[in-house]
Amino acid sequence: MSEAAQEKQPVVTPVRVVIALCLIAPFVAMLWVSSYARRDPALIGIPFFYWYQMLWVVLSTVLTMVAYRLWHREQRARASRDGGAER
Fold first, then answer.
1. Side-chain half-sphere of 74: how many Cα atoms within 13 Å?
2. Backbone angles phi, psi at 52, to 5 degrees
3. Composition of the chain by helix, strand, coil, percent to 5
4. Nearest to residue 41, comparing CAs of 56, 52, 30, 57?
5. Fewer CB near the last or first residue (10 Å), C or N of the chain?
6. φ/ψ (deg, to 5) at 63
7. Where is the chain membrane-spanning (predicted)?
8. Has residue 85 got a pLDDT over 60?
């Protein structure tokens, strides 16, 4: 086996698991409707059903940004380890 094949980076890394969790969390939260299909607790007169969904709009944005930055940081680290040959 060649030396390059032995040093190949694993496909599943802890960073990629965190990225996947950041991207999957909003889907799980929104598809589990029974967890938020109620009126109380209301926030400034807005039923829980509505403000919970709007909160997830903001959280989804933040989690997507975190996933994006982690992905690019990992890609830069891999490129520097590989000598910039692979992108």
1. 17
2. -65, -45
3. 70, 0, 30
4. 52
5. N
6. -65, -35
7. 17-37, 49-71
8. no
Among the listed residues 22, 53, 19, the one whose alpha carbon sits nearest the alpha carbon of residue 36? 53
N-terminal to C-terminal alpha carbon distance within the chain = 23
CA distance 26 to 65: 13
Contacts of 6 (CB under 8 A, 6+ apart): none
Q: Answer positive or negative: Cα dihedral of 61, 62, 66, 67.
A: negative
Tokens of 43: 């926030």
Residue 43, beta-bridge partner list: 46
**Residues with Cβ < 8 Å from 79, sequence gap 6 or more?**
86, 87
Whether the pLDDT of residue 35 is over 80: the answer is yes
What pTM did the predictor assign?
0.77
Rounded to an integer, what distance in angstroms lies between the CA atom of residue 13 and that of residue 10?
7
